[in-house]
Amino acid sequence: MQETTANQVAGNATSSFTEHLQRDRPDLLPYNRAMPAAAAATPLQVPHATTIVAMSYGGGVLMAGDRRATMGNVIASRHIEKVFPADRYSVLGIAGTAGIAIDLTRLFQVELEHYEKIEGTLLSLDGKANRLGAMIRGNLPMALQGLAVVPLFAGFDTTAGVGRLFSYDVTGGRYEEREHHTVGSGSVFARGALKKLWRPNLAEAEAVSVAVESLYDAADDDSATGGPDPVRQLWPVVYTVNRDGARRIPESELAAVAGRIIEARSAERREA
């Protein structure tokens, strides 16, 4: 009996944790949870996360997100985190329906850890990007009901020795971006700032400053984006990824960067 059970487990083994859930417990997948008929017919008021910026810099990639989640015209949270490490060499930023996005992020983290344990090696960066696209594609029925998730994915390609950045659409379409990219309701304003501030081969500290300033500009014109908040001591979540792995920028550094930006704009008496 034990040998038969072991053979069944071995026969069903897969390097994809998502495939395992889809086969054995599909109800546990974030996008397979049934919605009440009344809820499906009426637009849901749920927290949404915005805005995420990402860029390449000399030696790696950087991703940053503001801390605000909105629900209609109400601020649902000022403390939400939207950028997470996916594994040692990649990060994921979420925009869209916050609850589903966070669950997808956790599932993606487990997916990569499961693959590493089963195969004994890290999944390639292209493989990670493809698997994330498949997860987003699985959420398409929910997206058609207004519960969309649109992430950014970035990581360090240990084979090529470069940082790479990927964007997605709601159907799971994957697109590799050059230089920088943004998603979320404030993305158009953040992208405008990046076009002026970004340049090739930025130093890490310069890239952090550019990211914070682009989020500051987004918050200036988009009510769903929260800028640096010195009163509450709230700063964006910023991660860098290079050949040493993913690192979260300490809040003390972000406070200093935000302080310099605010001081410079105050000295110039800028209104826009």
UniProtKB/TrEMBL annotation:
The entry assigns this protein to a family as follows: Belongs to the peptidase T1B family.
Q: How is its activity regulated?
A: The formation of the proteasomal ATPase ARC-20S proteasome complex, likely via the docking of the C-termini of ARC into the intersubunit pockets in the alpha-rings, may trigger opening of the gate for substrate entry. Interconversion between the open-gate and close-gate conformations leads to a dynamic regulation of the 20S proteasome proteolysis activity.
Tell me the function of this protein.
Component of the proteasome core, a large protease complex with broad specificity involved in protein degradation.
The positions flagged as active site in the entry are 50 (nucleophile)
Q: What is its EC number?
A: 3.4.25.1
- UniProt superkingdom: Bacteria
GO CC, alphabetical: proteasome complex
Species the sequence originates in: Pseudarthrobacter humi
Molecular function (GO) terms for this protein are: hydrolase activity
Return the Pfam families for the record: Proteasome
Per the record, the pathway is: Protein degradation; proteasomal Pup-dependent pathway
InterPro entries, A to Z: Ntn_hydrolases_N (IPR029055), Proteasome_sua/b (IPR001353), Proteasome_suB-type (IPR023333), PSB_actinobac (IPR022483)
Catalytic function, reaction form? Cleavage of peptide bonds with very broad specificity
Q: Does the keyword Protease apply?
A: yes
What does the organism's lineage look like at the top?
Bacteria, Bacillati, Actinomycetota, Actinomycetes, Micrococcales
Its recorded name reads Proteasome subunit beta
